[in-house]
Design the sequence.
């Protein structure tokens, strides 16, 4: 059985898309299909390659009160994401071939979208001995990360890089020196002082990045920087790339759109790790994304329960949800504003992460590709509402923002996994 999508805008032309066997068979005007094929009327909608998020927390097993694979993948589909990479900081931590294989089975059984699994760099995320990378790569690990924890021992990271280079895999690094981070909850800046909140210096990120880049030069390891947050980090990454090092980087929507000058109260939904930095840092991140120093955008989708995001920043959990808000926020800020064309946003959300993580199973909206795509109403303007989220987590500082660009339908391997409002339909 196949599917025919009629009259979608594809690269500024009205086209039909014929899908058969989970792949795109043809793209062109006035295509025909067998009578028993379902037809999607995409008049007024734009077809985009499904988005790819290389940094997602699904919380299962161990923390299913926050999120599950099912709810997280529903959120992904609702946000237009067709491939996501899941971080290993669940319980038990994904740090052995047996645990990774069990996690892959869960992902495939309960996921609505393609879920690739990242494994831990070291046991329990904090151990001093790197995991058996060769066995984990063989078991299906797409990359290695201790996300949520910086690798404190230089020797541990150095050995992990040697193993990653030998096994042709990627280190996806959360950068945080615990001795510098201490008990900080917001950026070391005016907001911390005004609100009497413990500061979290950017040196915690920058010193580990400088250390790691020296070891990348020595090992040749493919190295990816998670959630870049500071201007100094940008400068270090730019220098590493100029040296020809195999380094890539991501930035989150919240670090592009928010900074600590916008923190005027002790608001838990403004607490994330790394924290929102200064306005100068935010502008440097935007500039680095525009010039290619930062390669793409990842959400760091981090759902928590309402209780965990209530009270003071001193006591609540780090992190916000992002899968369902990423596209409309970015479309509104970058494309609708005229800063970049839609094709550039597609590069940041799809093509560049596919390239950097060698995701051969993700589609790019081309004939012969896996039929991973999303249909978007680029004229729809609406408020972001927590009640609309498919994620269990409602922890977002963007609730109440008015955005443009609504995901209407999402297909994974030719299967409809999300169907929302039709073009022009009001919320």
Sequence:
């Amino acid at each position: 059985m196949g599917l025919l999508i009629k009259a979608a805008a594809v690269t500024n032309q009205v086209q039909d898309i014929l899908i058969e066997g989970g792949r795109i068979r043809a793209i062109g005007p006035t295509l025909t299909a067998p009578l028993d094929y379902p037809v999607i009327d995409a008049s007024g909608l734009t077809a985009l390659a499904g988005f790819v998020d290389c940094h997602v927390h699904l919380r299962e097993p161990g923390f299913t009160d926050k999120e599950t694979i099912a709810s997280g993948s529903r959120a992904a589909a609702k946000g237009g994401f067709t491939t996501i990479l899941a971080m290993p900081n669940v319980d038990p931590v994904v740090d052995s071939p047996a645990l990774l294989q069990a996690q892959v089975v869960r992902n495939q059984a309960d996921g609505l979208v393609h879920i690739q699994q990242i494994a831990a760099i070291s046991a329990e995320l904090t151990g001093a001995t790197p995991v058996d990378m060769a066995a984990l790569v063989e078991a299906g690990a797409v990359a290695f990360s201790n996300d949520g924890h910086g690798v404190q021992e230089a020797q541990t990271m150095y050995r992990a890089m040697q193993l990653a280079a030998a096994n042709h895999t990627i280190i996806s690094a959360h950068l945080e020196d615990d001795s510098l981070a201490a008990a900080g909850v917001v950026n070391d800046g005016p907001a911390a002082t005004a609100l009497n909140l413990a500061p979290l210096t950017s040196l915690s990120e920058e010193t580990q990045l400088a250390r790691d880049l020296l070891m990348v030069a020595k090992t040749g390891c493919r190295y990816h920087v998670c959630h870049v947050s500071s201007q100094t980090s940008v400068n270090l990454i730019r220098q590493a790339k100029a040296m020809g090092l195999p380094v890539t980087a991501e930035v989150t929507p919240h670090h592009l759109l928010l900074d600590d000058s916008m923190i005027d109260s002790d608001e838990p939904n403004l607490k994330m790790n790394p924290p929102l930095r200064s306005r100068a840092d935010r502008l440097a991140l935007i500039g680095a994304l525009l010039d290619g120093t930062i390669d793409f955008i990842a959400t760091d989708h981090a759902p928590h329960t309402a209780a965990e995001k209530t009270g003071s920043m001193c006591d609540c959990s780090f992190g916000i949800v992002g899968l369902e808000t990423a596209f409309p926020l970015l479309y509104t800020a970058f494309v609708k504003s005229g800063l970049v064309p839609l094709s550039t946003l597609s590069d940041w959300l799809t093509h560049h992460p596919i390239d950097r993580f060698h995701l051969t199973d993700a589609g790019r909206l081309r004939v012969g590709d896996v039929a991973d795509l999303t249909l978007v109403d680029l004229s729809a303007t609406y408020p972001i509402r927590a009640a609309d989220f498919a994620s269990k987590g409602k922890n977002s500082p963007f609730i109440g923002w008015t955005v443009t660009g609504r995901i209407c339908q999402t297909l994974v391997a030719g299967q409809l996994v999300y169907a929302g409002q039709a073009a022009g339909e009001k919320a």
Remarks:
- The chain is about 30% helix and 20% strand.
- The longest helix spans residues 203-219.
